[in-house]
Structure prediction request, 313 residues.
Amino acid sequence: MPDLPVVVDEPDMYEYRALLAEQAPHIRLILCEDPAHPPAEIAEAEILLTWRPHPAVLQGMPRLKWVHSTGAGVEAILRSPHFSPTVTLTRTGNMAGRLMAEYVVGFLLAMNFQMPLLIQNQMQHHWQRFNIPTVEGLRCTVLGLGEIGGAIAQMCKGIGLEVVGVSRTGGDTTAEIPDYPLSQLDTLLPNTDVLIVVVPLTPATEGMLDARRLNLLPGNALVMNLSRGPVIVEQDLIEVLQTRSIGGAVLDVFDQEPLATDSPFWELPNVIVTPHIAGPYDAVFCTQSFLQNLERYRSGQKLNHVVNYEHGY
Ligand code: OXD
Prediction:
């Protein structure tokens, strides 16, 4: 079978080129170095490796059959007006769980130790002692108990939190964590000290955490968003943080990224802002995941980590 050309529209395309040249030198790669003006030869290709494809790239590929996402979240691809659901979409799975769980535990402990205050005091050479409670026994709800949420739930349980998960339908016991359906979220929120948001962004999850739901949380609650900004109504979150109706937030994702320099989040003393780094970026892993699927694609087997268009992830 002659080799199928693979189009690459990725910010790290040169790294992918190097890795693929090493591991699969037979593949003919077509790089979109200027994605707004991709090379004409992409028109003949049926495979695209991408993170957030430029509309011109999708438009320029009438024979497109399969897109492999280098990331876990695929909403940017699904929402592109030029993306057709007749195309198969796969994502890089099994990459992020461990590191995202470390992010959660690390920043949860940092918030519990009042790290923002400690750093501020240190910068002002100010010696202020206070007691630090244990996190053991805190009630934690993982909103989105999938592959990533499951790893987070396990690690939080490992440090003594009482963890429950919420998923679309509930009832998945594989992670040994009680898994409630989304319909029970409102009942769980008043009993949640730590809310970890890892649901994919879909029409069903967009804006799901609004003022009403945020106000169901207890006054000490910590919200951690590692998913996508628009899952939480940003202005509502700012308000509950400003009025201290919740305890604080650790935010890795925002409606607009990079976060605007005048966003109130930067200044809030009960917030830690991180620049969308909770999910690891690992080109070596992504390349392996792509190559495994390429092998399957070539031999007509079912691909791994196929996105379900009905559920949006
Ligand atoms: C992803 C991310 O979706 O890093 O992979 O946000």
